């Protein structure tokens, strides 16, 4: 429980006024900005209600209603906002003149300065730092925005919507103005303004109804050459949404601005997306293949929000997953359609297991639809986003694609131009799919538990083979794995399954089948081919059909079989991951299982033979060990240093055992690595994995080759080389790192990856290295990317961060207290590096606890306090 006041879903009341239109006027000076707002306000009810407007760090200059100036005590003002005690009972115009100081705003919320340009971030509650306003997503208005500023300092003046007018203001041409109009009603969190010296690159898109859309990407001078990938990605997203969802872009202009100082990835402001520059500026020389794919998907994500988020928005912030879960689902489907469905699924599951499952196991676990919060910024989590997307994916599976799209269509038609709830969405989906709720083939209330309950459900599976009738009887049991819920909650858990004949091998006995586990216990009968003597091998949760963990009585032989034969990408990969987890678990209990290790290595050798040429990306994925967070989650008493060392030893073993095979493949791969992304990505990925294993196994030639590859024209290759040398901490690692730094020291986006590398690589030089990075002349305290690179990197430097004297933790706490003073959103997100303290072995646990107490005693923001208190309790 937090000591701070929380906001509750159950307290929701409608805002008593409509604000159909807003005119905003920005007069940008050298020291401050004068903002004038003029709002048309209509009371919703006859009974009078006071008008409450939020405001944060705004200086009020004047206020009038229908042209008549208001005087105290007709209104009252505090550090939270403004209250007008008796507003008129019918439509009126409220004009407010105020002053804000974006030049000293380091929070990166509201209007702020980034590398000389003024930019905004209003989601979730930043608009109240710009002008007095209700600042809640259920108040939708049409916006017209006028901006005036010095022509030379701010040649570009942008806001949402379409440009209506631009011109000079005085005879000597020192100042100019722009007027922007957004015809679509929107909540204020989608408001955006950008003013500065920016260059733009433009392109066009013709929609399926023949409308011409002007696309423009704004960047700092010199960065124009890095925008092609972003433009291409946007065009692909526009086309995909038309073809798959029948959704067309609605404005005449689509603008993206790249900003260096940004708290998150990107923001979907209507017609004027603002992006963290690392998610716009990229080509294959500066970004890895994975980064190019991520940029493509984030550009698509923000674009898809235009319908799922902007045209239909959220009634309140408890509904955040309504727009985020759905939009993540849409961007995942987009990437999956464009590239490889199987590989994308593995990528998403791996992310979910390492981050969302870890969150759901710990102190900041919450439901996809939470019931209360202190700071909404703390709820931009992987549960709201990625688990939210999994819920939509389950609905797609349960309804079938056709019905699912009918439901989505109805949702969009019903709620266009308004603010909705997750229940509105689900009801529309079911109605669109089946016409009536009673026709829905699964229990809707039980499905809704996915939204309301936190924690990852666990499924237990046991099989018994009826050889006489060739039937496999499978019993399923579900339990919700959360400390917070003791009640007996039943969920709807869709399980896609198939099975294989042990004798006949590779092809499954039947196509994928759907079993719906909707009770605590339920049985399934699988009829196999008549005459089948042995029990078949069961392949479960194919495509990772629900976001659960499971424990079954499958044997090691079964997993080995599936690792070699399963035709479902996810299930095949997952079987290998299971085996590797088992191996590492036994090693960490000091009893290595050599026979299992041998059999697994042999299976890898067989896999290499069968997959090397056909699917290099999949092969690389199959032979990579599970993520660190996933490994940590296997233990009740986590010893991070031991887990790290054991996982390195295991990888040394793999490297040594398959040395010959890897050397042969790496030669074959070289012919394809220069192809342009997305071509050649599989070969590059596999080459990186091979370099990692061979370098770890002590192959000096590979290590030297890695140093030479730092200057390779593909960033994927260069970073793979850095990665392969990382665990070594020898002079070659040092040499490679210096080479990389010298190549990229003038490019802040790429240099962040160097900062992260330096902070995270193992070495024996102590914590001073991190201190030095933080005072490096190229390090910028105001850029969250840089902070995340160094402090986030440091948190992954296992020996240093988790050092048993607790010094790593204390250092982190001190730095986060400093970060919190300038940027609470970044600090409160980063403080989660301490989330798992209770699960660690005593030494680490005590050290982390001490650092948490230190944070708790410090004068920290309410955002960071909320997280620290949750972690401590
Ligand atoms: N809506 C954005 C995420 C976002 C949230 C908050 C921000 O600033 C505090 C910025 C961006 C998205 O889903 O892409
Ligand atoms: Zn989003």
From TrEMBL:
Keyword Zinc: yes
Protein name: Aminopeptidase N
InterPro entries: Aminopeptidase_N-like_N, Aminopeptidase_N-like_N_sf, PepN_Ig-like_sf, Peptidase_M1, Peptidase_M1_dom, Peptidase_M1_pepN, Peptidase_M1_pepN_C, Peptidase_M1_pepN_C_sf
Top-rank EC class of the record's enzyme: hydrolase
Chain ranges of the Peptidase M1 alanyl aminopeptidase C-terminal domain: 557-872
Domain named Peptidase M1 alanyl aminopeptidase Ig-like fold: residues: 455-552
Similarity comment text for this entry: Belongs to the peptidase M1 family.
Cofactor(s) it depends on: Zn(2+)
Record flagged with keyword Hydrolase: yes
Domain Aminopeptidase N-like N-terminal: 24-190
